[in-house]
Amino acid sequence: MSTRSFCISIRLLKIFGFFHISEVIRTLLLLTYLIEKVPKFACLRWDKYIYDKYTLRAQGALMRLLLVEDDELLGDGVCMGLTQYGYVVDWVKDGQSALQAILLESFDTIVLDLELPKKSGLEVLRAARAQNITTPVLILTANDLVEDRVKGLDGGADDYLVKPFDLEELSARIRALQRRTTARAEPIIVFGNISIDPASRQAYLNNEILVLSRREFALLQKLLENSGKVISKEQLVQTLYGWGDDIDSNALEVHIHNLRKKLGKEFIRTIRGVGYIVESKS
Question: Are residues 69 and 103 in the same domain?
Answer without folding.
Answer: yes
